[in-house]
Amino acid sequence: AARSLSTTSQLQAQGNSTKSKKSLARSGVKNIVLVEGVRTPFLMSGTAYADLMPHDLARAGLLNKTSIPQDAVDYIIYGTVIQEVKTSNVAREAALGAGFSDKIPAHTVTMACISSNQAMTSGMGLIAAGQCDAVVAGGVEFMSDVPIRHSRKMRKTMLSLNKAKTLGQRLGLIGSIRLAHFSPELPAVAEFSTAETMGHSADRLAAAFGVSRVEQDEFALRSHTLAKKAQDEGLLKDVVPFKVPGRDIVSKDNGIRPSSKEQLAKLKPAFIKPHGTVTAANSSFLTDGASAVLIMSEEKALAMGFKPKAYLSFVFVLRPTYATPKVLERAGLTMDDIDVFEFHEAFAGQIMANLKAMDSDWFAQTYMGRKAKVGTPPMEKFNLWGGSLSLGHPFGATGCRLATTVAHRLQKEGGQFGLVAACAAGGQGHGMLIEAYPQ
Asked: Among 393, 400, 408, 430, which one carries the catalytic annotation?
């Protein structure tokens, strides 16, 4: 981790007399704060963003929201999963497009659905190491236009054609082309090592933990209902309106669609047919969107006159079930100390399987080497403004949305500590503790 945590130092401001004296803040080190977080509206792929490119979305928002001088940013990091080949370092292209100086380094990371989580923690590491004071971290995913490749045999032939020196060599290569060579290779949300799609994994996970179709549908309905309520009440303040060239301004997420249990029950299994339980309705949908956060050393943020939202801390392990106890123990906290939970909802079956694992002594003892279960987050504290099932899940951008949502919920609800947890392909996971900045 980027830095050690303290459970004894008091909050570095007056007030908060009713809150815990435990804190992520610590004297004598570079405390890291979240200053601002923004995102574009998350849209279903193939809708209003369809004619754009990933860097068009990635460059939006943060500079105007914070009014930070361009030269005050030391580094820019973005996460993405399915890369546009023309802008492989999308962080750099987005930075230049947003007007940041070309003297500011920028790099792109990929870690499946926790790519922007990795972008944030990479930035935190740079700050903790004293290399930077201000980092813009974010993520973007653009599913409306994913790269589609020729078959490997066709690619090999075309590369050979490019090197052929004589007409005879060219004709020979052209003559070797067969109709099957024209079959394209489509990108898939699948594991290379297992060839299994995430939907199949979610179906297996749900079956292993006994998560029923009814439970999954009810959880998905909860997500959409809460997201619609939050949207209507203006709670999703991280959403920055985005002007689509030649079209209207997009100002809100368009995938939030509360339905009914009866309607959801009519859908057929999407992956394991005919007996699977994962459907289009209880899965997150393909989404276009971008997010960004400004993270700084506390000292620099205060010196520049910013009012931080939260302190940050993190850990990387396997899946939310594993991440939650590890990040809590390192901070000297328990589940009871957490006021706000924001877990990534890739699939209803996936998140509910994790919740059942967290509530199982047998799982803790058999797989985690723990004496007792972690415990389940209280649902009255859990994803109260909707989640990835309803708001959308641009793979590379969800992590920053989760962190910003926790910070905003802590402010709104008057809580002190929040917990982000997210899973990712390959059995990876991320946990982040967030503490409301004392006012």
From this structure: 393
